[in-house]
Amino acid sequence: xxxxxxxxxxxxxxxxxxxxxxxxxxxxxxxxxxxxxxxxxxxxxxxxxxxxxxxxxxxxxxxxxxxxxxxxxxxxxxxxxxxxxxxxxxxxxxxxxxxxxxxxxxxxxxxxxxxxxxxxxxxxxxxxxxxxxxxxxxxxxxxxxxxxxxxxxxxxxxxxxxxxxxxxxxxxxxxxxxxxxxxxxxxxxxxxxxxxxxxxxxxxxxxxxxxxxxxxxxxxxxxxxxxxxxxxxxxxxxxxxxxxxxxxxxxxxxxxxxxxxxxxxxxxxxxxxxxxxxxxxxxxxxxxxxxxxxxxxxxxxxxxxxxxxxxxxxxxxxxxxxxxxxxxxxxxxxxxxxxxxxxxxxxxxxxxxxxxxxxxxxxxxxxxxxxxxxxxxxxxxxxxxxxxxxxxxxxxxxxxxxxxxxxxxxxxxxxxxxxxxxxxxxxxxxxxxxxxxxxxxxxxxxxxxxxxxxxxxxxxxxxxxxxxxxxxxxxxxxxx
Length: 480
Ligand SMILES: [Zn+2]
Prior knowledge:
12 strands, ten-stranded mixed sheet, 2 domains, alpha/beta
């Protein structure tokens, strides 16, 4: 028989148990956060990639990417403080700080007077490790909004100095765009200044491979960089390149620790491909982002209760449509596979043909042969015979590339978006044949998708503003 005290304790225990049962289940804190930003990646870019994958794998409809299968899905509006169609600086500031700001401003208020604290800085201040990764230069607007505070995105050198002073643990991907400043006359390079601030810098594959958690603060750049400081388009990469996903994998290896981490990874070349209206380069770079997200998914599978992965975009670029007036209800997205290099690389090739071939007839023949070789256009074995009007478009473009056609600057822009006319026309014909069309060479104002999985992911369901995204991340991380 129980004594009175024992009976009392048993009752108390039962009461306690009941109270605990009645409390709402305490959500797990997101200790490890991955914030992926596909620059310029609208819903049409994602969907085109999914449909392209289905087409080349001989199935219909859409093939899932790692992140299109995430359980939470939202839509975010992207307008800037002083313009409806945003830019990467203002949109990045919204995503990094939860504040609207003016065009071109990097994590400062609209009047460019006060600094805005970023979620990456807040994570650092709470003892988490921080990694910033980008496929374009690491001082470009999107990554910069997470560690820098400057009145203008074009202040690349000043931004690089902010990077070195951030004390963040890992920077990966592209290099610095203007390491000696705008005029190339800075007294110390961005790289040397970062070294002075305790960073280890790697620029080769071998040094990159040797990085370990014991390496200290790291800036790991690609071993093959363009003059812009960016990694090459995925469609132009070879085994020589370090792809974006490797930077995420290495970042995880270096940043993994008991207190947690915050990683922002930008796939910046989705935007560049969209600015060029280059559908094949676009689908490839969405794939590059997907491969990077898969690295985060591998980590998530081991720490699913404490990991949050978000994939979104800062804005849409190009006004991509999955249809074209000329093809009406037809789609043939698999045709994009015929393109073997980016519009950008093909422009260089066409320029060199025109420059090095004085005879016009010979130059035109060589140009058309290159169009056939790298785009499959007029290749009957690939079912891409050119129609007379398409041939005419390419010939006109050839003369325009040679500078022998009278046209206003604006007419040129509307036709080719400032790109090499032949390369732009080859890309346009292939995109149209695939059933794709573009409405702009700039950004557009359409809301962007937000995909999330893991601790706190349910916060990302619904329709909200881009400034709400970091607020939701703070909530999931229980930082504020
Ligand atoms: Zn852009």
